[in-house]
Amino acid sequence: MPQWSASASTMSRPRPVSDMGYGEDLVYKVEGGRRIPRPEFMDAADLAVGADGKLAAMKSDLAEVRYPRKIRELAKLEAAAVEVLAYGNSSVHGLLQTTEYARALFSMRQPAYPQEEIERGVVARMARQAIFERSPAPTLGFVLEEVVLRRPLGGKMVLRRQLEHLLILNELRNATVQVMPMDREEHAGIDGEIQVLKFKDGTAVGRSEGAFGGRPVSDPKQVRILDLRCGMIRAQALTPPESTAFIEKVLGET
Hints:
- This protein is α/β, with parallel strands linked by helices.
- 44% of the residues lie in helices and 11% in strands.
- It is built from ten helices and five strands; from the N terminus they run ααααβααβααβββαα.
- A five-stranded mixed sheet has the order 3-2-1-4-5, sandwiched between helices.
- β4 and β5 form a beta hairpin.
- α5 runs antiparallel to α6 and α8 packs antiparallel against α10.
- The longest helix has 17 residues.
- It is globular.
- The chain starts with 23 loop residues before the first helix and ends with a helix.
């Protein structure tokens, strides 16, 4: 069977695959291109085959291809943004999701995803959350519909842990999670989800389900419209302290 191997001219004496701490099935999938390895796998492989850092050096290249092609550009934009504003009406925003919640969302898509594609999607979504670890920290503002907090996608325990995670995020100084309650008579986000990303050079991009054909836009006039809507949505939603109390209330009822 195929194994990690190396020529004597470029690498040290290889160690058994079992020493890597990973099963042979996973190694097969990585070798066959059916699974994109995590950074720690590359470190273990480098040590196992005595690659002297050559395999570990590939981690940055692999980090990009771990994202599905359709969201690679989004991930790059999020990584460069100094401010992110987002409104969601069907599920918790991807940057706020727990692993369990994300897996539940990918698992319920139709036509059904293969398990490997589900796991790849989950890994990519979690990797985007590195935005919370950046320094200097970007400003992050999210508004979620009340129904999103009450819909038990993945089951009640998955929802409970997701609500707990939102409360933790709301303690961050650079992030706010607001709730749009169902009793509002005015709602600037009635046309659907909106996201605006702003960059340090003064440029911005945005996308909305209900504007400009749902396409990403960078024209200042178009972005200004989306930014205005985000501002109105945030003003119409509960304040951050009110939202925290509301999430705690929903958690107690779940």
